[in-house]
Design goal:
162 residues; alpha/beta; Rossmann fold; 4-stranded parallel sheet; 36% helix; 12% strand; binds 4-nitrophenyl phosphate
């Protein structure tokens, strides 16, 4: 991460496959957690794939976020690009596949640090956030639990008092 992070606003990108389930939920959880903590940051999310570009988050993800007091309905899916590796300080991938695909297009002089989301959580390093897309409705609650833990870890990391 960049060295002036204690004074500069961090820029964090959440990454998954389709950018309609996990990463928009992570973006929503982080926006809400940082607003509650009074910490300024820039957030965005993207997918490694392009199938859902321009689409809003999956309706089940929107419903889960809404239940948790977070509105993600205005988000629109986009695909990860090389420019993201300079625009963001930190790119957090939902799983190993997303991490591998990101590193495959990472420019050699990229400034962003690229990590797994759950590497921020003690004892969960190396784990992926389970993709709820093909599963049952309650999978979205499990995804929310993971991404809100990631959001809390980011608040702790970037808290001026932390
Ligand atoms: P996400 O979930 O990567 O968490 O947004 C998925 C969304 C769409 C697809 C796969 C995963 N898909 O194959 O269309």
């Amino acid at each position: 991460m960049r060295e002036d992070r204690e004074t500069a606003k961090p820029a964090i990108l959440f990454l998954c496959l389709g950018n309609i389930c996990r990463s928009p939920l992570a973006e929503g959880a982080a926006r809400t957690a940082f607003a509650a903590a009074g910490i300024e940051a820039t957030f965005d999310s993207a997918g490694t794939g392009d199938w859902h570009v321009g689409h809003p988050p999956d309706h089940r993800a929107q419903a889960e976020a809404h239940r948790r007091g977070t509105d993600i309905s205005a988000l629109r899916a986009r695909q990860l690009s090389a420019a993201d590796f300079y625009r963001f300080d930190l790119i957090l991938a939902a799983d190993e596949n997303n991490l591998r695909d990101a590193l495959a297009i990472r420019p050699t002089d990229a400034t962003a640090e690229v990590r797994l989301m759950l590497d921020l959580i003690p004892d969960r390093g190396g784990e992926g956030v389970i993709d709820p897309y093909y599963g049952r409705e309650d999978g979205f609650a499990a995804t929310w639990a993971d991404v809100s833990a990631v959001a809390a870890a980011l608040v702790a990391e970037f808290s001026p008092n932390g």
